[in-house]
Write a structure and sequence with these properties.
alpha+beta; four-stranded antiparallel sheet; 11 helices; 53% helix
């Protein structure tokens, strides 16, 4: 390997990017725009290939290309670019990028949400979120196949239709069920998930207490910290389960004050990882 030590790997990549790197963000909606693009140049194909492997070891996916005798490493996806920033510790320098990403995420969903009946959606989402979190937890730690058939079918239907009301969910099954029947099944699923959680010390329910919630710069800090550990680290919230090592994934949860989220950690260094990441919320 070109460099063995993790600290040196980050310093090496940071130095390369500082010397030859470039990041461009196309204007939203601009004709011919290609979105987000990061690249830096290297002296040879061999060094480029080894550098890609260093990035890969840090959880960053990148590609190489050759142009007019020069060799380039490039990343085109906004989430992968965010992961690159976390890897080299360039959180403050790219806070503007996170603000752009967040702004676009909000803009892309605003029209769809605007015409919804707010009161009905709040009730439906609150119930569906709790159900989905329980189902995802069972899926991750025991497998949906461990559930009785009627509960498994209902759980799969919930995952396939995350925004459906309990009444609507009953009509979507091959064998339709009443609203009360689906509600009973969901209570059983939540009870099973609760028992699994009680036997798993590496899962923690968190209530966001920060007045401004978890902001983009907080997500960057969490992702950078999570990237130091081998363990799988996930945050579960708002019907979504995201990798805590991904800044974009964390930002997409849009965690606000008083939101309930779950931190799940599993792996060889799970205890240290759990204590560290738990302290950042």
């Amino acid at each position: 390997a070109l460099i063995a030590n993790d600290c040196c790997k980050r310093a090496y990549i940071k130095g390369l990017y500082s010397a030859t790197g470039n990041l461009s963000v196309a204007e939203n909606g601009k004709k011919g725009a290609t979105g987000y693009y990061l690249e830096f140049s290297l002296a040879s194909q061999n060094i480029a290939n080894e550098t890609v492997e260093i990035l890969k070891s840090g959880g960053v996916e990148a590609k190489t290309r050759e142009k007019k005798g020069a060799y380039y490493i490039y990343i085109k996806d906004s989430e992968k670019i965010s992961d690159f920033c976390a890897f080299i510790g360039a959180n403050k320098g790219y806070f503007a990028l996170q603000e752009v990403i967040l702004s676009r995420l909000v803009s892309n969903t605003a029209n769809r949400q605007f015409n919804c009946e707010i009161a009905n959606i709040d009730r439906t989402i609150s119930a569906a979120t709790k159900q989905t979190e329980a189902i995802l937890y069972i899926k991750e730690h025991a497998g949906l196949e461990s559930l009785p058939e009627t509960l498994r079918i209902t759980a799969e239907a919930r995952l396939n239709h995350p925004s459906a009301s309990v009444k609507e969910l009953g009509t979507l099954l091959d064998t339709p069920a009443s609203k009360s029947g689906i509600s009973h099944r969901m209570r059983k699923i939540i009870e099973i998930a609760t028992k699994l959680k009680e036997n798993n010390p590496m899962l923690k329910e968190k209530i966001i207490t920060a007045p401004r919630g978890i902001r983009a710069e907080d997500c960057a800090v969490i992702a950078q910290a999570a990237s130091r550990y081998i363990s799988d680290i996930f945050v579960i919230a708002a019907q979504k389960k995201v990798n805590a090592k991904s800044i974009m994934g964390l930002i997409s949860l849009n965690m606000k004050k008083d939101d309930v989220v779950y931190l799940s950690v599993s792996g060889d260094d799970e205890k240290a990882a759990f204590e560290h990441i738990n302290s950042l919320f």
